[in-house]
Amino acid sequence: MGFLENYLENGPSILEILLRMGLTALFVGLIGLERQMRHKIAGITTHLMVAFAATAIAILQDAIYLDALAVAKELAADPIYTTTVNIQVQRQRVIAQVITGVGFLGAGTILKTRNGIYGLTTASTLFLAAMIGLIFGMGHYALGIILSLFAFIFLTVFRRILNRTSLKHAQSPQIIGAETVDE
Questions:
Q1: 58 to 95, 113, 122, 138: CA distances (angstroms)
Q2: Which residues are bridge partners to 175 per DSSP?
Q3: 32-53, pLDDT tens digit by residue?
Q4: What are the φ and ψ backbone dihedral angles of 113, each rounded to 5 degrees?
Q5: What is the Cα–Cα distance from 64 to 119, expressed in whole angstroms?
Q6: CA atoms within 13 Å, Cβ hemisphere of 63
Q7: Gap between the Cα atoms of 164 and 159, Å rounded
Q8: Second label for 146, Cα 20 to 30 Å away, from 27, 74, 110, 175?
């Protein structure tokens, strides 16, 4: 089973990577499917690509982190190093960079017309997809599942409840070419 082991000695195995990617596909796929069924500008493919990129970078960051810890332990145990070995490992940096990049992508899905602003939910679901990807990518399965289920409830059940009240969700305009046609 040599091919199922990771190239980094201390990182997640190929099976662990497949589990993390599979959970991302399942849960973000549901959110992307909901967006696709509502004919939104970013559907299942966009959501999955954002989430998979975030998952992959989180897995890589996790592997690099674990590898750096192992190197630090080896150096600390080596009698050649009589002084303190100082290795900085910052796991949060990758999260900050993904947030910045996805924020830029999400801004592109927001449309302002004379009747209002549309696409905010799609922008937020792209952001959410990236966060779910990061969470699964770093191996926090329970948090990823809980976040995904709440998001799906908000996008489906909660929206249906709101639509039965006076707090109905504003309909997005129909986009034709570069023009918008307000419904």
A1: 8, 37, 23, 5
A2: 180
A3: 898 888 888 788 888 998 999 8
A4: -120, 180
A5: 36
A6: 18
A7: 9
A8: 110
